[in-house]
Write a structure and sequence with these properties.
Blueprint: H1 2-17, E1 22-26, H2 49-52, H3 56-71, E2 78-84, E3 86-88, H4 99-105, E4 116-121, H5 122-135, E5 140-144, E6 147-150, H6 151-162, H7 173-189, H8 198-204, H9 215-218
Parallel strand pairs: 1-2, 2-5, 3-4
Antiparallel strand pairs: 4-6
Helix pairs in contact: 1-3, 7-8
Length: 229
């Protein structure tokens, strides 16, 4: 986490010294739009540090935002922070977001978690990044998302598209986390990787649902393709 944040600082400071006045920071909706009670959030929602700090990725993004805000604050400079939700689309060679789809198709997910997520097509998010170059306001954050679905609904849509049956059982968060920890410990004894890691189980039972409230940037952001899934 500290290394990632320091890398962001080393990236931003030289550009500022070289006269760069506009800086677009690609962050994540996980720095604000996550709750443990399913509440729908927007850009004004207080950043839930206690929740997001449980995941190194979200914590690093949170500190990147704070660092960039401290660097780009002089007159004539403009920092725009974009917070896309779960990006789905082609080109995800590292499987950073689409691995859950492959795991679903391979039937590696034994249960349906109880959380919810906001999804966005990567192509739609790319359009918003282009708009931010001209329309983004200094030191403002913009959530980029398309639809809010429960994990159950997401799996149901994947079942319809792929023909692969969704997990039959849904369990409470406490049971899911306890079970994934227990299974993970067994797999570690066998020097194998568990099908559902405890951290992923915790993440899947957190709600990351949001609503967009800043039409100036989002007038060019019409995320229709994701809703057709």
């Amino acid at each position: 986490m500290n290394c990632t944040s320091k890398a962001r600082v080393s990236c931003a400071k030289p550009r500022k010294k070289n006269g760069v006045k506009n800086f677009i920071l690609a962050s994540s909706s996980g720095t604000s739009a996550i709750t443990d009670n399913g509440q729908i959030t927007d850009e004004t929602y207080p950043q839930p540090v206690e929740i997001l700090s449980k995941w190194a990725y979200y914590a690093s993004k949170y500190y990147q935002e704070k660092t960039a805000l401290g660097i780009f604050k002089d007159k004539g400079e403009r920092l725009v922070i974009l917070n896309p939700s779960l990006l789905l689309g082609s080109g995800d060679d590292r499987l950073s977001s689409t691995k859950v789809v492959l795991d679903f198709m391979a039937k590696k997910l034994p249960i349906t978690p109880g959380g919810g997520l906001n999804f966005v097509d990567a192509r739609d998010a790319a359009t918003a990044f282009m708009s931010a170059l001209n329309k983004g306001r200094h030191q403002e954050r913009y959530l980029l998302g398309a639809v809010n679905w429960t994990v159950k609904e997401f799996f149901a849509r994947l079942e319809r598209l792929t023909g692969v049956s969704a997990p039959m059982f849904s369990v409470p968060k406490s049971v899911a986390v306890f079970g994934s920890n227990l299974i993970d410990s067994f797999y570690k004894n066998w020097n194998r990787t568990a099908p559902l890691k405890p951290q992923r189980s915790k993440w899947a039972n957190i709600s990351g649902i949001s609503i967009l409230t800043k039409p100036k940037l989002n007038s060019d952001f019409l995320p229709e393709s994701q809703t057709k899934l």
